[in-house]
Design a protein that fits this description.
The protein is of the alpha+beta class. It has one domain: Sandwich (Hypothetical Protein Aq_1857, Chain: A), CATH 2.60.300. It is built from two helices and seven strands, in the order E-H-E-E-E-E-H-E-E. It is globular. It comes from Baia soyae. InterPro entries: HesB-like_dom_sf.
């Protein structure tokens, strides 16, 4: 599985993880959201690693997902926008496209 994380985004994710002084194992989960007929949007959440989740470290950052989300993880690009302080998550070739047709 290939996920590209910019150095800036990796540093920010590691800093967020460092700030959590949790006893349980935490990881980031990237979730895809559909946006009607457009391309998907994504959210990043910090969550516990549950037994039925898959997980792996990418640039020493723990990520987790449910098995059905594996296709969304492969090919993700994660960056960080210095100007607005938000993550940029994109998939150049989403594994699932909406069949919606606007007339």
């Amino acid at each position: 599985m290939k996920v590209h994380i910019s150095d800036l985004a990796a540093a920010k994710l590691l800093y967020i993880l460092y700030q959590e002084h949790a006893d349980e194992s935490l990881a980031f989960r990237v979730m895809s959201h559909t946006s009607g007929c457009g391309t998907p949007s994504f959210a990043i959440d910090l969550t516990e690693i549950l037994p039925h989740f898959e997980s792996m470290k990418i640039k020493d950052i723990p990520f987790t997902w449910i098995p059905a989300e594996r296709a969304w993880m492969d090919g993700l690009i994660i960056d960080f926008n210095r100007e607005n302080g938000k993550f940029i998550v994109a998939h150049p070739n989403p594994p699932f496209q909406s069949q919606c047709q606007l007339s």
